[in-house]
Write a structure and sequence with these properties.
The protein folds into two domains: about 80 residues, no CATH class; about 350 residues, 7 Propeller (Methylamine Dehydrogenase, Chain H). The chain contains six helices and 31 strands. By secondary structure, it is of the alpha+beta class. The protein is globular, with a radius of gyration of 28 Å. Keywords: Repeat, WD repeat. This is DDB1 and CUL4 associated factor 4. It holds the Pfam family Beta-prop_DCAF4. InterPro entries: CUL4-DDB1_E3_ligase_receptor, WD40/YVTN_repeat-like_dom_sf, WD40_repeat_dom_sf, WD40_rpt.
Length: about 500
């Protein structure tokens, strides 16, 4: 005779102790459901007792359910299910599938709320006239007033699909957007698209049509494409503002990386017939992770490329180069404008600056500023006063650093990242910080008080291959445009503009 409490063996000889525990909890919860049903249908029970029991049971729902190894509790079906460890079973149930299902249901719920924006007003107390009246009476301080106004504007943005036109019908709707980068005037957007047979191709979108009710843009393509991954893109002002585009390509196998400077006129249909300008400069380098163009006159026509364990500063006209050795790969870069200072973010988490007025020398003496994050740095953004630096890393942390005191003064919560290269978008004119997470959600924070203003879901299911790329501008489409957000995902383009 078996002793009480001994393990039960299945036909394979495995212990079913956890199965018996799960069945016991399922039976107990079923009896609780029957008990609630009896109380609700009993004429002697009062409504107040029923409501009290229901509220107490619902509040203790999550806390009363223990977590059993190898089992998953479904709150909708109110029972445990066994997690299958392998992929050879029929309809396997794993934690990854459960997590993806929960994220998808959350995304669909947020999309429904986005679609209802036309039918509902903003939250109570967030209307422009009462806010202005309270501000005039001195009931709202300037910080709270600015935050509420930005929250009002950002939450009133509605998603509208943009129609993409092109002289070549094969350009539109065939390849997925990987990256979009707007020029200084926000009149053009350089695009990097993934090609079906592998590699990338480039194009330029003219945003002048965003000011019309039709929301149409024109996209121009060219014959330049590559079978290598594009790691970084930035606009370059060589002969005139935003006259060129700087590309950094990743090396594969025995093929080294490449840095190329393309004239923007390659993508224009207004150039004279027969005029086919080529690349201004293209040179082979080790794997290039990042690039930046300098707008300061003291380093005129210079651009930087972040390589494996070094930084290379090149003059595009003379070809003169400066090399700065580092201890880690340089993943993010940006130049200051008031001084020829280059800020760099490394895979090791170090952030340092280089003053180009000082010649490169051995050792670490040329590092003017040094900051440290706990993970690889994915983006660095210099604020207009050039006394503050916004930095994000691969743990999802976004910090604002005071360069004078070398300390973090603000931190923005909610960003999602584990290992992806995700850029930041800082817009001081509107007081906004925008970042797309690895979960494919676009989040908008108030730059002043770090308040999360809005979370925009992707129109498509979350996937590491379909992370949206965004552009925000105070004058989207040109000098007469309104503030808005441009979002590119897969082969579609969406516009979120202020009403």
């Amino acid at each position: 005779m078996k002793k009480r409490g001994s393990y039960i063996r299945d036909r394979y000889g495995r212990s079913s102790h956890w199965q018996s525990n799960a069945c016991r909890w399922n039976r107990r919860r079923s009896s609780n459901e029957r008990y609630r049903a009896e109380i609700s249908h009993s004429p002697q029970s009062s409504d107040s007792n029923t409501r009290a029991f229901s509220s107490a049971s619902s509040s203790n729902e999550s806390s009363s359910v223990p977590e059993l190894p190898g089992f998953y509790f479904d709150p909708e079906k109110n029972r445990y299910f066994r997690l299958l460890p392998g992929h050879n079973n029929c309809n396997p149930l794993t934690r990854e599938i459960i997590q993806h299902k929960e994220m998808e249901s959350k995304r669909l719920k947020l999309l429904e709320e986005e679609d209802m924006l036309k039918k509902k007003t903003t939250r109570i107390g967030l209307n422009p006239l009462p806010l202005l009246h309270k501000r005039q009476l001195g009931l709202l301080c300037s910080t709270n007033y600015c935050r509420l106004v930005h929250e009002l504007r950002v939450n009133c943005m509605q998603r509208k699909k943009v129609k993409i036109q092109s002289p070549d019908s094969s350009v539109v709707g065939t390849d997925h957007f990987k990256l979009i980068v707007a020029d200084t005037a926000r009149e053009r957007v350089f695009t990097v698209n993934d090609v079906e047979h592998g590699g990338c191709k480039y194009g330029i979108i003219n945003l002048s049509g965003l000011g019309t009710q039709a929301l149409t843009v024109e996209m121009y393509d060219n014959l330049y494409f590559t079978n290598r991954k594009v790691n970084s893109v930035c606009w370059a002002s060589l002969t005139h503002p935003d006259s060129h585009v700087l590309l950094c390509l990743m090396g594969i196998a025995e093929t080294p990386g490449c840095a190329s400077l393309l004239p923007a006129s390659l993508f224009s249909n207004t150039r004279p017939v027969g005029d086919q300008p080529g690349m201004l400069c293209s040179f082979k380098i080790s794997t290039a992770w990042s690039c930046a163009w300098c707008l300061n006159p003291q380093a005129n026509n210079c651009f930087s490329t972040g390589l494996s364990r070094k930084v290379l500063v090149t003059n595009a006209v003379t070809g003169h180069r400066q090399t700065f050795g580092t201890n880690s790969d340089v993943l993010a870069q940006q130049f200051a404008t008031q001084a020829p200072v280059l800020f760099n973010g490394c895979r090791s988490g170090e952030v340092f600056s280089i003053d180009l007025r000082h010649r490169s020398r051995k050792g670490q003496g040329w590092k003017a500023t040094r900051l440290f994050h706990d993970s690889a740095v994915t983006s660095v953004k210099v604020l207009q006063d050039e006394q503050h630096l916004m930095v994000s890393d691969m743990t999802g942390k976004i910090k604002l650093w005071d360069l004078r005191a070398n300390k973090c003064v603000k931190q923005y919560e909610g960003h999602n990242n584990e290992y992806a290269y995700l850029p930041l978008h800082v817009h001081e004119e509107e007081g906004l910080l925008i970042a797309v997470g690895q979960d494919c959600y676009t989040r908008i924070w108030s730059l002043n008080d770090t308040h999360l203003l809005r979370t925009i879901p992707s129109p498509y299911p979350s996937s590491n291959q379909d992370i949206p790329s965004v552009v925000f501008s105070s004058h989207l489409g040109g000098p007469y445009g309104v503030p808005g957000l441009l979002l590119a995902v897969r082969q579609d383009l969406y516009c979120f503009s202020y009403n």
